[in-house]
Design a protein that fits this description.
Length: 69
């Protein structure tokens, strides 16, 4: 993998924790991420995956708002 960045660099770039990056890699949420022994290498072109936790909260509030009307 030529243009690859470390978990630490990805965490700085996307402003999230290194552990969160590792979990995203484990769950195949970062396209092209590869594991080499005990570390992950992430393609430099990879985009930050959307945070499904925030999406669920938004969906829940939309449902609550719809139920009020």
């Amino acid at each position: 993998m030529l243009d690859a960045i470390s978990v630490k660099k990805a965490a700085e770039k996307w402003q999230i924790s290194e552990r969160r990056i590792q979990k995203l890699c484990e769950n195949v949420r970062i396209e092209g991420a590869k594991r080499f022994e005990h570390s992950w290498m992430i393609p430099a072109y990879a985009e930050k995956p959307c945070d499904l936790r925030k999406r669920r909260k938004a969906d829940k509030s939309e449902v609550e708002a719809a139920n009020e009307h």
